[in-house]
Amino acid sequence: MTTTPFGRSAPLTILAGLFLDGTLGEPRRDVHLTTDGGVISAVADGASPARGATVLDLRDYTVLPGLINMHTHTVLPGDGTPFMDWMALPDELLLLRAHTNALVSLHAGVTTLRDCGGKGQLMFRLRDAIRAGIVAGPRLVLCGRPLTITGGHCHPFGGEADGVEGMRLATRGLIKEGADFIKIMASGGGTPGTYPYRPSYEVEELRAVITEGQKVGKPASCHCTAGEAVTRALDAGVDHIEHCYFHGPNAEWREDPALAQRVADAGVYVTATMQTMEDWMLAERARTGVVPDQDRHHETLTSMRLLHERGVRLVAGNDAGWRHTGFDDFSREIELLVEIGLSPLEAIHAATGRAAAACRLSGVIGTLEVGCAADFLVVKGDPTQDLTALRTPTMVVQAGGVVVDRR
For the chain: N or C, fewer Cβ within 10 A? Predict the structure, then answer.
């Protein structure tokens, strides 16, 4: 059910029974939060509403920041349709699919999507439509087209670029179009004909992109499903790594403590994307009746556990849109973070405050502090004790406006 009982610009005071601010601070009780013009204007202990504000009594609930899904491909269906088959469809259908996916995410409590690759300028156009109020949707943090070698992973998106100068020019073009960050396919991936266990770019090519982004404050992120790709990304000074698998060139899975420690020492963020492997494994079991010989999900969990133990800054992103991963159950990725050793509070932080920091949006989204966007969830129960409370939010509020109300 979608409702809009409060105007986004009208003052609103929320009385929260339990309050999580998106940092690693302990939960607080009986907090009141006031929004004005879509921004948080006050946060204080005690249940004293602002004078003249509409009051929303949520003292039987937990209030926490809206979730940030740090890795999606919003133009993709997430229903198992082969990638190349889907990319043969007209752009208009891809754009409509992207809008539907974005709305599904928002209604599930994801108020910000960090899209890690779409076709052409489609995601920029969707963001334009949301900002203009033409359609509803979550906040979008975009890279546009991911950069990939000729014929590389996700090349149908239109981001093929080669050589130092080609990479530099492609990066400048994406920045001109409005990219918030630059995504580089530093290894192959699930696109047919690519090589997921081998690096794609030379260090100098990666460095050209990263340097161009740094000039204007745009972080760069590398898709890495091979140990050598991780090494090259670190050599080039990358800000963020997607997946961060340590496979060898012949698809052999490796546990590489030294490389994991190097990732930690570099201070880069890593998006774990564990859910997509679990969803793939479950889909294969349903289709064939057996678990695949190579349990990629177990390998991914083991790798992420190693990274966490070394102190790597993990953020929550589930690769929604890819293979069998949809947009309605991002909370599962947060639960998987607990399975690899994070506390529930740390896992929530990975999808809120830390995720915002990785996007360079601290103080804008991800935490419930004065001056931040009034994006928050209302859930039954205490998610720091039981993360399943996040599966079906009671309410979703974006920019001070109630998007979903299931009370």
Answer: N
pTM for the full predicted model: 0.96
Show the low-confidence residues of the chain (pLDDT under 70): 1-10, 47-51, 291-294
CATH number of 12-66+367-405: 2.30.40.10
d(CA 398, CA 157) in angstroms, rounded, equals 30
Helices 91-107 and 122-131, interaxial angle, to 10°? 50
- Which distant-in-sequence residues (6+ apart) come within 8 Å of 353 by Cβ? 21, 22, 23, 24, 65, 362, 366, 367
Residues 401 and 4 sit within 8 Å (Cβ to Cβ): yes
Contacting residues for 169 by C-beta, under 8 A, at least 6 apart: 161
Specify the CATH number of the domain 67-358: 3.20.20.140
What does the domain layout of the chain look like in residue ranges?
A: 12-66+367-405, 67-358
Q: Do the Cβ atoms of 72 and 317 come closer than 8 Å?
A: yes
Give 170-222 pLDDT, tens digit per residue. Answer: 999 999 999 999 999 999 999 999 999 999 999 999 999 999 999 999 999 99
